[in-house]
Amino acid sequence: MAGKGRSRASGRPTLEQVAVEANVSRGTASRVVNGSLEVSPYALKAVRDAIRKLGYVPNQAARSLVTQRSDTVLLVVSESEDRVFGEPFFASIVRGLSQELSSTPLQLNLMMASTARQHDRVEQLVRNGHVDGVMLISLHGDDPLPQNLLAAGAPVALIGRPVADGGAVPYVDADNESGARAATEYLYQQGRRRIATITGPRDMAAGLDRLSGYRAALRGKRGVTRLVARGDFGQASGESAMRELLAKDPKLDAVFAASDPMAAGALRALWAAGRRVPDDVAVIGFDDSELARNTNPLLTSVSQPTQRMGRKLAELLITQLRDPDAKLAPVILPTELVRRESA
Amino acid sequence: MAGKGRSRASGRPTLEQVAVEANVSRGTASRVVNGSLEVSPYALKAVRDAIRKLGYVPNQAARSLVTQRSDTVLLVVSESEDRVFGEPFFASIVRGLSQELSSTPLQLNLMMASTARQHDRVEQLVRNGHVDGVMLISLHGDDPLPQNLLAAGAPVALIGRPVADGGAVPYVDADNESGARAATEYLYQQGRRRIATITGPRDMAAGLDRLSGYRAALRGKRGVTRLVARGDFGQASGESAMRELLAKDPKLDAVFAASDPMAAGALRALWAAGRRVPDDVAVIGFDDSELARNTNPLLTSVSQPTQRMGRKLAELLITQLRDPDAKLAPVILPTELVRRESA
DNA sequence: CAGCGATTTGGGAACGCTCCCATCCAACCT
DNA sequence: AGGTTGGATGGGAGCGTTCCCAAATCGCTG
Question: Nucleotides on strand D with an atom closer than 7 A to protein CB?
Answer without folding.
Answer: 7-12, 14-21
